[in-house]
């Protein structure tokens, strides 16, 4: 279940995806399969080849893309989520959703 975002933010993300942009949407999310994660970042683009190329630079495999409706996307969780948001200059997502880098 997704929460912690506005309808306006969701609509803006969907519009960016449809324009062929690499679009990020972080929201609170709980799933029993991932008890240590409290949020997820969906990175989407309707140009799947562009999305695949984007993901490759972060070691993401094309097989990890979820093909839901008109919004193919990668789900970023945990350390991968933090690192990609940081490298992408999206510190506002990190602060807003209280994300931290896991230490070994």
Explain how this protein is built:
This protein is 36% helix and 18% strand. It has 104 residues and is α+β, with helices and mostly antiparallel strands. The relative contact order is 0.18. It has one domain.
Please outline the helices and strands.
Layout: E1 2-3, H1 7-18, E2 23-29, E3 39-44, H2 48-56, E4 73-76, H3 78-87, H4 91-96
Antiparallel strand pairs: 1-2, 2-3, 3-4
What would a concise description of this structure say?
This protein has helices at residues 7-18, 48-56, 78-87, 91-96, and strands at 2-3, 23-29, 39-44, 73-76.
Oligomeric status? single chain
Strand proportion, as a percent range, falls in 15-25%
In what order do the strands lie side by side in the largest sheet? 1-2-3-4
Number of strands: 4
Q: Given the C-alpha coordinates, what overall shape results?
A: globular
| Radius of gyration over C-alpha positions, nearest whole angstrom | 13 Å
Structural class by sheet pairing and helices? alpha+beta
| Series of H and E elements | EHEEHEHH
| Number of separate structural domains | 1
Strand count, sense and barrel status of the largest sheet are: 4 strands, antiparallel
| Secondary structure tally, helices | 4
What are the key terms here?
4-stranded antiparallel sheet; alpha+beta; single chain; 4 strands; 104 residues; globular
């Amino acid at each position: 279940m997704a929460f912690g975002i506005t309808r306006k933010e969701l609509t803006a993300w969907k519009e960016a995806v449809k324009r062929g942009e690499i679009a990020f949407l972080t929201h609170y999310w709980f799933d029993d399969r991932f008890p240590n994660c409290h949020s997820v970042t969906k990175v989407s683009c309707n140009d799947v080849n562009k999305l695949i190329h984007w993901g490759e630079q972060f070691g993401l495999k094309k097989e990890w893309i979820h093909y839901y409706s008109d919004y193919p996307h990668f789900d970023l969780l945990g350390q991968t989520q933090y690192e990609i948001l940081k490298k992408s200059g999206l510190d506002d997502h990190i602060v807003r959703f209280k994300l931290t880098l896991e230490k070994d």
